[in-house]
Design goal:
By secondary structure, the protein is an alpha+beta fold. The chain contains five helices and eight strands; from the N terminus they run βαβαββαβαβαββ. The longest helix has 12 residues.
Length: about 160
């Protein structure tokens, strides 16, 4: 696996939602690095990818309330346990669960296994609220991932506190 700076030179065979990710990062003037690789099936695979990117693993969870009227994208450290009860109390939601695949496609235009903060650029109705664990904000670089599953591209940058 190799580390590359910026967008791929050849965009052939890449999905439009991946190209939109690079377009947005470039438009915002954000320097980023990527590594083309197979889909990561578990946290051990993520460890290898994130070591190449020199970033800390970041879990990205797409959640909703019971009524499916509120959607959340949670970024948290990969080694931190997700505690539904605690987060529900913090945000004032009675009960949180993982959102359905059709909701993932509807709002941030992402597929299961491809949850990414970059998907929020596709949420034209602003239906998804971004929640960031304070431990993630302490990191210099985070793995954002682009918005595809079969060939994820890790993107690193410490822009969460800039934008």
């Amino acid at each position: 696996m190799e580390l590359f700076k910026g967008r791929p030179e050849n965009e052939e065979g890449r999905l439009p939602r991946e190209i939109r990710t690079y377009d947005l990062l470039d438009l915002l003037g954000i320097e980023y690095f990527r590594s083309d690789h197979e889909a990561a099936g578990n946290m051990e695979d993520c460890n290898v990818i994130d070591a190449i990117l020199e970033v800390v693993i970041c879990k990205k969870l797409f959640l909703c309330n019971r009524q499916k009227t509120a959607f959340y994208l949670l970024l948290m450290p990969g080694d931190k346990k997700f505690k539904t009860k605690e987060l529900s109390a913090q945000i004032g939601s009675a009960r949180l669960s993982f959102a359905e695949p059709e909701d993932m496609l509807k709002y941030p235009d992402i597929e299961p296994g491809s949850v990414s903060v970059m998907g929020l650029m596709n949420d034209k109705d602003h239906a998804v609220q971004l929640l960031i664990d304070e431990d993630v904000l302490k990191e210099e670089n985070v793995n954002l991932d682009t918005v595809i599953e079969y060939k994820k591209n890790g993107v690193r940058h410490n822009f969460l506190d800039e934008y």
